[in-house]
Amino acid sequence: MAGTTLLLVGVVLVVVVVFTSSYRVSYLVTDNYKSLNSRIHYYGMFGLLCTGLPVLIIYLLWWLLIPFYFEASVVESLINSLEISPDENLSLLVGQIEIIRDTFLSADLSKKSEVLNQNGKINYEVVASLYDSVNQPFDPETRPLLFQVGYDLWLLEKNTNNTFHLVLFIMMAGVASVYIFKVNPRFKARYYVENIVLGILIAAAGIAIITTLGIVVSMLFETFKFFELHDWKDFFFGYTWAPNFHGDSEMSILPLLFGTLYISIFALFVAVPVGLFSAIYLAEYATSYTRSIVKPMLEVLAGIPTIVYGLFALITFGPFLRDFFGNGGAFGVNWMSDARSVATAGTVMGMMLIPFVSSLSDDIINAVPQSLRDGSYGLGATQSETIRLVILPAALPGIVGAILLAASRAIGETMIVVLGAGAIAKFSGNPLEAMTTITTRIVSQLTGDGDFNSPETLVAFALGLSLFLITLVLNVIALYVVRKYREQYD
Amino acid sequence: MKINKTSLSSISSLSQKRIAAEKRFRLYGLIGISIGLLMLIILIGTILSKGLNAFQQTFITIEIELIEAKLDKKGNRDLADIKKVTTFGYTPLIKKSFEVLISKENLVTDLSSKNVSKILSKSAASELRNFVLKDLNLIGQTVSFEFLTNSWIDGYLKGRVTRETIKNSKNVSPEQLDLVDQLVELGIIKKKFNLGFLLGSDASDMRPEAAGFGVSMVGSFYMMLVVLILSLPIGVAASIYLEEFAPRNWITDVIEVNISNLAAVPSIVFGILGLAVFINFMHLPQSAPFVGGMVLTLMTLPTIIISTRASLKSVPPSIRDAALGVGASRMQTVFHHVLPLAAPGILTGTIIGLAQALGETAPLLLIGMIGYIATNMPTGIIEGLASPNSAMPAQIYEWAKRSDPAFYERAWGGIIILLVFLITMNTVAVILRRRFERRW
């Protein structure tokens, strides 16, 4: 409620600034707009930017940073209270206090004043009724200290926030009134507005950098935490993946990497021939009418969400394979015990990758100059000879780039392997056995109820960082190859 | 030396080989395309054949006497007193009404009334209780009430469950199916359009028949709202800077390489980023659609930037020159002339980016947007953005994990809904492109 009022006040203030400043400028101009530096609306727009923008930025920073101050104050008062033994889990207590704070926050206002009795102590009956009024279960076992600290925290947050809003409002009103009373037709409003807008544009472009930095820094941070708790030699050079919650987990990336690469290569064996031959046919043989129908249809495969492929692998394709290779299956062999396997996930992932290979290869084959074809035909080569001996060699780097992009996609693919590949980490050559991948393990380690400080959870960040680096290298090579190739014929 | 005589009218063996090779090569291409198209057809066929059933549900209509002596012993219609009667108090009423039904319609069955009432969904009694609590005047009357049957009976009517498949099942007996056959003939058990699937929320493991997709659809909607509001302005601003203003130096090169790489980073990495930064570091709430929207924004931004830059690039330089020539500033040139001309392309790219984000699952799992979180529709925008919810693909994943064919059917049904959204969005994008695209 208070939030909406504040927002409304801010918006009204900004609107007032916009209209009064442009009105004042047009009022001050006496010589038929000749001395006006910028068009009228730029004066209003500058008013909007100079009052609205700083407030927005400050508010964002405040919202990001102030929780750390509050948390620090809670920890400090906990430590100062002398009731807490040093070996207690502080973050757990802080979590409890935050719940208490939230209860105070959402509880009925009239009762809050009665929480403290005359000598400044918490009145439990009132607190219990507070809890009742917001349907929060009241636990009478909770330590009195936590209520005290929670109440203090609530009070501190309320006061700090109120002060902050007041200061912000005064600042905003100050800037607004200075601008309104100082603005004149000679003010270079357009110049300043455009510079501010340019600044906003640069900041937006910087978000891409910030995202990458965020990915790297956040994962590095957690990965270092992981390596403090777990031997890095085991992670990179161990043989087994066996996390448990007794504290002696063996967690090595190698079996997972093996499964990931096995499934990806399997998928590429499905996708590359199909995709490449489709691309050749579409680019060289098909009429433009066929092409205009078939190409978008193949691209539909790339637009279908991966969860659909995952479900298809788990429910339809896996059992279908098992009907052939499983116990009592059509081939009379017992090679497959589970519907989930390398072949299941690999084939379905291959389906998904067909358009990645075909579309990009198609573009690349089309980019081979016609003069090469004409020269080859002129020497008497057939169409297929031209393709095999002239066009494909010329397009090869680009096609390799396309396959690398598909490979990076396969390595990072999650839902198909989560549903179709199984959960067993091992080195095995049998494509009909279940195997697990890096992405599968990230999902399973991070979706449980694990503690965020245990190595079993933190390992997911190390896995994620490895995955990021592998795909990054593949992408950089692929993009470099494709770009280099494009330049060759441009 | 023997000269190999050939004539123009007969084809030499070498030529024959070459012609055969040509035909073979062509065939490979055709086979490649056919495999691709076949896979598409199989996929769509599977989705439709397995999912369409989810849009129908089996209901049973029975008359229930709401006996006053059981529900309101004091007879004063006091809500607090009636609330004290738990769902256990309502099960006898349902049993009784089945007894009445069997004797009235002369149905043949050896089942006890307890086993007969088991053909209903497990939530039947609580449904009835909620119904009564809403309108206390009904107590003492006989009301015709429509219940969900349990998922096995539902499967039996849809052909998923047959008498062979239930031989060893504890959940449903052949006698129950005999009774169901008779009730179907009488029109008491009927398949109807499943509105609950479109509007309802997920249900617990034991009640697939009550699970709905509606709440996660709303979750996805709010997420897409966040993605749109954040990624469109930021993406367009970034593209304008990079395409129109940025000087050619190493910093812009780094940004460009960065963006094309970010577009190829696995989506799960964005999930890890979201978990580490938004949830562990900033302490934003888990499972909230606005956090999911922020994660998906980071993922969608590169797509939008790349397509926006392409459509800015396709606006010919003569437009810019003309604008600059009549005295517009660079900023005015871009915002008054280039941007409006590039707008259809930008919108198309944004819609395609949104469609991609809508189908994304992996990052959502990591920030806790798995299924069975929200049991009620959010009531307002704030609640819709901040209270825990699921999203369409995450809900599908949740159902796929519960190894029960009745949930699989729901998952396929959910996929149909998801694909309908995606097809609509992509069609709009194609129409926009066709309608407004200008060739210069």
How would you characterize the overall build of this protein?
- The complex is a heterodimer of chains A (490) and B (440).
- Chain A has 17 helices and two strands.
- In chain A, strands 1-2 form a two-stranded antiparallel ribbon.
- The model of chain A has no long low-confidence stretch (mean pLDDT 85).
- In chain A, strand 1 and strand 2 (250-251) form a beta hairpin.
- The longest helix of chain A has 41 residues, at 40-80.
- The two termini of chain A are 60 Å apart.
- Chain A is flat and about 95 Å long.
- Chain A is an all-alpha fold and 490 residues long.
- Chain B is mainly α and 440 residues long.
- Chain B folds into two domains: 56-193, no CATH class; 214-436, MetI-like fold (Orthogonal Bundle), CATH 1.10.3720.
- Chain B is built from 19 helices and three strands.
- Chain B has helices at 13-51, 68-71, 79-83, 91-105, 113-117, 124-134, 151-158, 174-186, 195-199, 214-245, 250-262, 267-281, 289-313, 317-325, 330-358, 362-366, 381-386, 392-401, 405-436; strands at residues 56-65, 142-148, 189-193.
- A three-stranded antiparallel β-sheet of chain B has the order 2-1-3.
- In chain B, helix 10 (214-245) packs parallel to helix 13 and helix 18 (392-401) packs antiparallel against helix 19 (405-436).
- Chain B is flat, with a radius of gyration of 31 Å.
- At the A-B interface, helix 7, helix 9, helix 10, helix 11 and helix 12 of A face helix 1, helix 10, helix 11, helix 12 and helix 13 of B.
